[in-house]
Amino acid sequence: MVQTPVGARCPECANVKRLPTFSMNIRYSLRAILTAAGMAFACGAAWWAIGPIAYFNFLLAAGFGYGIGELVSLSVNRKRGKWLAFIAGSSVVAAYLISIFPPWGFGLVWFSTSGLVVDILAVALGTWIAISRVK
Questions:
Q1: What are 8's strand-pairing partners?
Q2: Which of 31, 36, 58, 129 has its CB surrounded by the most CB atoms within 10 Å?
Q3: Residue 65 and residue 124: Cα distance in Å, rounded?
Q4: Does position 93 have pLDDT exceeding 60, yes or no?
Q5: First-last CA distance in the chain
Q6: pTM of the entire predicted model
């Protein structure tokens, strides 16, 4: 039985459908993936250009997370869902990885333990913000 505004009904009679906000098709999924990939590359290049400044990474990650989440949300007409959250969150992680290992090949790759912990926390913050925009 399914609860409806007029009482309990069987699932066939209730004609249960997902809300349009949460229904995704292939077209919207591809749009979200392409937008997230483009934003990951752009944010990763910007992150690399600014360079590793320890606590400034929190602001960068938060800003990039918000921007990625907003643009992914706009690209799919403000739809919501778990897959969109995964796409937006993984895009922030990809942006950070692009900033460390740039595809153009002349990046500085150096790690310190304290810097890596701060970076991981910053990426976690950016990922959480991106996910909260589309979940």
A1: 3
A2: 36
A3: 10
A4: yes
A5: 28
A6: 0.81
